[in-house]
Write a structure and sequence with these properties.
By secondary structure, the chain is an alpha/beta fold. The chain contains 3 helices and 5 strands, in the order H-E-E-E-H-E-H-E. It has a 5-stranded mixed beta sheet, with helices on both faces. The longest helix is centred in the middle third of the chain and has 18 residues, at about 65-80.
């Protein structure tokens, strides 16, 4: 039995320690200017000194998901007039392949299984 994506999102929103972070929830399903109509930041947190954009997946993390979260970072920074250094990004999924973990490392994307 698979857990619906909205249940995963809600669990992460109410307990960010599942991702190994100490942060406050800013919001979820956030639409930004420049995003396609049906595209949203899954979850946005604020840590002590940075924002954290989380893209969660119920299945495998794809290269597209990595590109997507980096694009969300750019759009968020542009809309809020923030430095890209003030925003981190993360992908969370039940399984992340070694290849994707390596890409995450190369592209400075945090990841959590």
């Amino acid at each position: 039995m698979r857990i619906p994506e909205w249940e995963i999102r809600d669990a992460i929103c109410w307990n960010p320690k599942l991702l190994g972070i100490n942060a406050k929830l800013v919001g979820f399903q956030i639409h930004l200017k420049g995003m396609e109509e049906r595209k949203f930041i899954d979850i946005l947190f604020k840590t002590k000194d940075k924002f954290l954009i989380v893209e969660h997946k119920k299945d495998e993390v794809t290269k597209f998901a990595l590109d997507q979260v980096l694009n969300y970072k750019k759009l968020f920074c542009a809309e809020k007039a923030l430095s890209e250094k003030s925003v981190d990004v993360m992908v969370a999924a039940p399984h992340i392949s070694q290849e994707r973990k390596w890409l995450c490392h190369e592209r400075e994307i945090k990841n959590k299984e």
